[in-house]
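step 3/5: co-fold with adenosine-5'-triphosphate
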Amino acid sequence: MIELQGLTKIYGDKTVVDDVSLRVDSGEFGVLIGPSGCGKSTTLRMINRLIPASRGRILLGEDDITRLPVEQLRRRIGYAIQSIGLFPHWSVAKNIAVVPGLLKWPKSRIDERVDELMGLFHLDAGELRDKYPHQLSGGQAQRVGVARALAADPEVLLMDEPFGAVDPLTREVLQDELLRVHRHTRKTIIFVTHDMDEALKLASRIALLNAGRLVQYDRPIELLTRPANDFVRSFIGKADLGLKLLSRRWVHQYQQPATLRGASDESVRISGYAWEVDKEGRPVCLHGGRLHAEDTQERTGVTPEWSATPDMTMKEALSRMVWFRVMVLPVLDSEGRLVGEVTMHGVMGQQPCA
Ligand SMILES: Nc1ncnc2c1ncn2[C@@H]1O[C@H](COP(=O)(O)OP(=O)(O)OP(=O)(O)O)[C@@H](O)[C@H]1O
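step 4/5: write tokens
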């Protein structure tokens, strides 16, 4: 657990971190986000004691970090940064082993730990152990940087825009890997980014800073649905707030009972469409339910793409509705049987169930 209490940093007459208080519980994935210059990196550097705080306290578990010997702090807090900072003349293995080496672990334990971490990050130890940083791809170098930060099994991992310099595809892969490693290790993470999509994907809690002050500290869904003020609204809402929101919601939250062909004429009249299913309960086609009046085709064959599953995000379901020009998607179980439907009308008007 990391707790910041009234954390403040003043340079000259400028307060760059201003009375920030927040707590990241054990095993949580906290993300610091905000516009350039809002004080994210300065906050992280104070936590790591790379720079001293002007006021306030930082607790690591029960301990005030200013009272911990520096080598204990380095062991308990891992640090990974965008520029990676790998030593260019050291091999991958030696780079990963920096902190265990400082802690004077026996060689056999260090070797074992290096292999374990390379495995965790899908780095082929046979091929890469003795390579030098300039022989790695950007994604591989980032993995080595994060593996190095985890080498001494710290309680907390601080990450300052670690994926800022890699291409978007590699970035997504690295994000997925980090989520997997987080699930596996349950480390407490504090991650700095200025990319809202990255924050929404990774965070269990997001701290939004502006001009050194903490504006809102909340779960991603709360930030999206209950922004504390206009600054939050404009920071998250600039591009595609609605779609971001639907990327955190799931089909099963919007799912309704399907209207079947042969149901009472009244229910078919109200919904304007009905599903025809085969003997096993798999949908065969939809009668009605198209977006446009010119789509006069009465019976529309159901394909695997034109359907949803309960664990699909509503963003993807909506995208499919738009692509197939339909008002409604069948929701299928793993056997392809019709278990419900989601509708455009439901997305617009209905509060999702918990
Ligand atoms: N050593 C320093 N002396 C004076 N001002 C500093 C110093 N270090 C940082 N600052 C100022 O503190 C403010 C916060 O900087 P910081 O690097 O924490 O911002 P950030 O939110 O991480 O920004 P970015 O997203 O651009 O990396 C900036 O205005 C910066 O110019």
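step 5/5: annotate
The two ends are 28 Å apart (CA to CA).
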